[in-house]
Amino acid sequence: MLAGHVEMGFMTEVLLARRKAAVLAPSQLACLAKLPTVNLTAGCAHDCVYCYARSYSQNPGKGRITLYANTLEMLREELPHKRKRPPAVYFSPSSDAFQPIPQVLELTYKVFEFLLARRVGVAFLTKGRIPDRHMDLLKANAPNIHAGIGLTTLDERISRAFEPSAAPPEVRVAQIAALRQAGIDTQIRLDPILPGLTDDEETLDAVFATLGRLDVRDAAISTAFMRPSIARTVRHHVHDKKLAETFLDHYTPGAKLTMHGAGTSVIMPPAATRKAIYERTERIAARYGVSVKICACKNGDIAAGSCHIAGDLSGKTHEPQQGTLFG
Ligand code: SF4
Questions:
Q1: Domains in the chain, please, with CATH?
Q2: pLDDT tens for residues 174-212?
Q3: Probe ligand 1: pick from 44, 124, 225, max atoms within 8 Å of CB?
Q4: Assuming Cys at both sites, which of 198, 200, 206, 220 could form a disulfide with 194, CB separation 3.0 to 4.6 Å?
């Protein structure tokens, strides 16, 4: 870490660190087994209260993120030495490439640009606001992009309480529309579903009616999972205590599960509760022509197969379009 080198980005303190291990890291999650993954930061400024990555040892704590400032420099060294060029890279298993921090967004742009210019596809999952400049880059490289947009609910009040610094739901919906319009393979992740808060008929109908209108055909779903540290964060940071307790009640008693591929255990709502939620979600989604896949990494007791978190990018990538070769 660069001692004393601290910059401010919005309300988040940005610590600059030099990455020592390789940039392209294998994921522990089975659904990402074929692609290398990159976290540009440790910690995430979106501050979702249900976020499992808050408890990771590298996380510098609330109100701070660590930015791996030498990522591009290392990638320039690392990529040419790969025996086999990866078809795509996934961003980011435990952070978000579109955090509202200028330094993060700049690094995201440069790293995406670098990879796409070398015909390495980019798959990402975000709950953030994608700036116009980045959106233009994605559009110019549409065949080599898989976009994942995390959408928990269209209810602003619940989104603000549980995802205080992520993009508001209407911004995420507008981004889905823009990505779809540009012909970019776009998957929606209704993940996490917050039991007792976002799993009712009306809430789900509103979400899938919107997705259906945008011609989205593919969504992955899962309820949130729980750990003692997540429960503490929810109790501490969700100011509406009724919301917090309604959500947490669904995990007592819960089902203890092992995250597929990751080997760590988490608490999920009981299988019967989840099955009822997923069946309801599937039925409502089908009404609007959307097919759903249950995330089997988090629901190994009742689901199997892949939710295709990175789309089809594990196959070969397409030539960049004219005028999109950089560097
Ligand atoms: S956007 Fe993702 S990584 Fe960031 S805080 Fe929310 S759940 Fe965690």
A1: 6-294 (3.80.30.30)
A2: 999 999 999 999 999 999 999 999 999 999 999 999 999
A3: 44
A4: 198
